[in-house]
Structures are given as structure tokens and as C-alpha cells.
Amino acid sequence: MSAQFPEYFALFGIAPRFAIDPEQLTRAYREVLSQVHPDRFAGAGPAERRAAMQLASHANEAFEVLRSDVRRASYLCGRQGLVVDGPGAVPLPPEFLERQMQWHEDLDAARAARDASRIDRLRGEVARQRAGRLEQVAQAIDEKSDYPAAAAAVRALMFLDKLGGDIDRAATLCSDALGTEK
User: What is the pTM of this model?
Assistant: First the structure.
């Protein structure tokens, strides 16, 4: 394992898979943290305190990555040498890129019209798309070991998550605007 991809799953005694039990992860995290928490080393020497701090920091980072579907999938793809985000990232299919543009246009139009029902429909469509992509990731990684397909689905998830945030902000602005018009 390269320094870029430290082993997070082994730290918690969990098999490196996309589908994990969140409760098992949380229990394992708490157990590891209880063993390496810096407070346990308050009376130790500076080197031991520093090591405990580093181990606790590593456990925190590992937990944050593994508890997020998108970050966990990206991490698993990265371990296979695939870049999910940034330069050299796995490309998205042209039809998804076209659909991205359409979603943005739909959101812009709904926002401009302050059309809350249209924003809600778009939110529902994006949520369904996200659920489908999560299923693709799970199948690609856990069933097929098809990491290029998983990486493309993760990139799509990243976009859908960003769009979901944009939709939420538009819905808030729309409801705030409607509230001030009453």
C-alpha cells in the first residue's frame, strides 16, 4: 500500500468492500480511538504522546473516509490506481455530461421562476439518479471488481451531490422569497 493510500479498512478490522456495516465501523472506530486517544498517554513521554496523537489523527481520517459512501468508493478506486477527481480522472460518458447541462438549465429556470414544485421534482430525480449510481458502485466494486466502472459512477455521484446542494440552496431561496411575498 502506498503512502497515498494508507490502509483504513485493516485499522478497523473491516474487509475492504464498498458495502460496510456503519454500526460495525462506528464500534471499531470507538475501540481504536479508546486505545490510542492522546489522553491515555498524558503521563507518557513526548515521543509516545506524539505517536498517540498521530494514531488518533489517522483513525479520525480513516473513519471520515470510510463512513462516507462517495469518499469510501473513491478511496477503494484510488487503491486500484484510478483517479476519481482532478487531473487524470476517469472520464464521464458524454450522455451524462449532456444530462448535467440539462439539469443545470432546469435548475436555473426553476430558480428564476421561483417554482418550488419544479425544484422538488428535480430534487427527486437527482435523488433517484444518486441511488442508482450508488447501486452501480456497489456492484462494480463488490461483485465485479470493475474499478473503472466504479470510478465513473463515483464521479457521477460527486456531481449529483454537488447538484443536490445547489437544489437545496435554490429551494431555500425559493421558500424564503415566497415567505416574504405573503
Answer: 0.86
